[in-house]
Amino acid sequence: MTRMILLTLKESVKERAFYGTLIVFLFSIGLYFIVNSFTMFEPERVMLIYSLSTVEIISLLLVFFLVFTFLNEDLSKKSLEYLLSLPIKRWEYVAGRFLGISLSGFVVLFVTTVVFFLMHYIVFGVFYFKMFLHIPLIFVMSMMIISFAFLLINASKRPVLIAFLVLFIYAIGINLDDAVQFLGTKKAASIPYFSKLLVKIAYYVFPNLSFFDMKIPISYGIGINPEHYVLVLIYGLIYTGFIMLFAVILFNRKEIK
Amino acid sequence: MKRFFLIGILLVFFLFINRTFVPKISRYRKIQKGEAGLFLLSPDAEKFISLDYEGLRSFWVTLDLRVFLATLLETHPYFPKWAGDVVYKAYRVASFLNPYYFDIYYIASLNLMWDFKRYSDAEEVLKRAIQYMPRNWLWHFFLSFEYFYFLKKYDLAAEHMKIAAKLKHSALLASLAARLYYSSGRTEIALSILDNQIRNTQNENWKKELLKRKKALLAVLKIERAIEMYERKEGKKPRTLDVLVEKGYLKKIPQDPYGGRFYIDKNGNVKSTSNFTEKRESENGHE
Q1: Which residues on B lie below 8 Å from A222 (Cβ)?
Q2: Residues 6+ apart with CB under 8 A from A133
Q3: Which pTM was predicted?
Q4: Nearest CB to B56: which of A49, A171, A175?
Q5: Which domain holds residue B216?
Q6: Total domains in the fold of chain B
Q7: What's the pLDDT tens digit per position in B9-52?
Q8: What is the ipTM of this complex?
């Protein structure tokens, strides 16, 4: 499995998506100074939100692109048959690819966070260590997203469809908590019962990715309860573990022609 | 080499097309924006489309609002009334997305208060700011100012000024709070604030100033008590302070340490011609 992880990491570095992400990152550094000049009060807070958002966007973009690229190569270009003809087990392929993409995402997440952390120090003269609290959250969230991609390769051979479904799950997961909170307000009184029920079912089925959004509490240094933080990470890890377990079981049974 | 050449051509093309069209299109957009305001959905919908980036969206909405207001002033001599709705809506969206975002409360409260005379909306903005930033003295200060200057609610103004003074550890704000309590007819509270401030102030000059104000308020309190006794016994309010001396409720009219003269205003409150400011100001016509 280590070989598979290393192979995925090496391929990731060679991918165009990786360099595309690097260009986006360089742009975002330039944009940092522009956004900073547009803030009125508390620029350090606004720039923290900007930094954390950018780090998240960049690492998620990379993960999405890598998942799509690898699935495209493995499924469409028949590399999967070649890989499976090598002396590696099926579960090693799935786990190796999964961990390889996750680690690539983690490296980018860590490096971009460190760069923004240093920029924050250069511009505002403060080492804001709480920025690093964001890394595990986004790392676990991206693992959840990647795990869904590996679950879905058992359902479809079309990488575009898988990528679309993963994006769909991401969009739902991000908004689920807000949707449920909205249903609890008076404004939602006119919404049909069936729609409410659907949202509630989705709430307990789809991953609640909005739990991982702690950018505002981290930036303002408020409301970060250690228990809450750890609970969110445990939730993400267990969810990912289960999805990957299913993905491996289904992939072992999958017929590959 | 060929690749760089292609990139160069692309850059020239981008420059050409933007240089030709952008100024013309943006002129129309400016007019359109000035008339239509900002395009904002309801706060819930905005949160939904912001995905995971509410903080950034909140910053963007506020920036849009600032551009909108600046653009509007280029085409209008003063803000049109309808623009107040845009400010209020932008506040609702931005503060919903990031309730800790300082800028939106600042811009919305001041614009709604000064430019659109929407005092209850400004009050709502400031109260929400206090809810999320309870340790920031500025919101209490602004709210106090609104109550005092626009709404003439002196007691509420005094309450918030007192909190602002406490949060900022400011003797000046405490002194203002005492003045507001005095204006709202609560001289005893004003005196207790001053006492507390005198005890905690290290600066000797400032302490001297506070003692002078305390002396003035003690004089006011003495007159107010005499008026109360007069009202109880005579069943009516005295018209002038001289009546109180004539009837023996006061030995003499106390002296105003600021050099003014005490009198009873049309609402029955004790006032001084000095308005408790230094005498040179009253001589310059600041009464």
Answers
A1: 100
A2: A214, A218, A224, A229
A3: 0.73
A4: A49
A5: 24-233
A6: 1
A7: 888 887 888 787 777 777 666 555 555 567 788 888 888 888 77
A8: 0.74
